[in-house]
Structures are given as C-alpha cells and as structure tokens.
Design goal:
This protein is an all-alpha fold and about 80 residues long. Helices cover about 50% and strands about 0% of the residues. It contains 4 helices and no strands. Helix 2 packs across helix 3. The longest helix has 14 residues. The termini are far apart.
Length: about 80
C-alpha cells in the first residue's frame, strides 16, 4: 500500500487537510488538475447524474488509495540558554 501512496503523492494526488467536504478526494483531484474544488465537486455530481453508479464505487476506492496531505512540520527554534 505504501508504494501506491508514494506513487500518488509523487504525482500530486493527495487529499488536502483543509477544505475537505467528505474525504477530500474530489478536492484533491481538482487541485491536481488545476480546477477549483467547488467546480470539481459540481462536475463530479453532474457526471454522477449523467452516468449513475460508477462514481459511488470509485470515490471510496480513491479515498483508500489517495494519501492524506502531510502538514509541514512547525519550525524549530533554537533553545534559549539557561542563565
């Protein structure tokens, strides 16, 4: 599973930690392809209405396969000398 997560992370397919509605899958896809997350969600729903069924299976699979975005570690400040 780590190789799948690493490959997706390398290609920019990650679920963002901010701006999620459900699992962050569609927001991650939108970010990867340069689409606003709300537009990506609208397209997802329109495709679901046009071709019902397949997205219901694809979403949970992508939720499992797409790794969550890693937050940047907080900067470490040097310790103050004790007087």
């Amino acid at each position: 599973m780590e190789t799948v997560h690493g490959s997706m992370r390398q290609n920019g397919l990650v679920r963002p930690t901010q701006g999620r509605v459900l699992g962050g899958v569609v927001a991650g896809l939108g970010r990867r392809f340069g689409i606003d997350p709300w537009l990506a969600r609208l397209l997802f729903v329109l495709i679901l209405l046009a071709i019902p069924g397949s997205q219901i299976l694809i979403y949970p699979i992508l939720w499992i396969l797409m790794p969550a975005e890693q937050e940047a570690p907080a900067p470490v400040s040097p310790a103050s000398p004790v007087l």
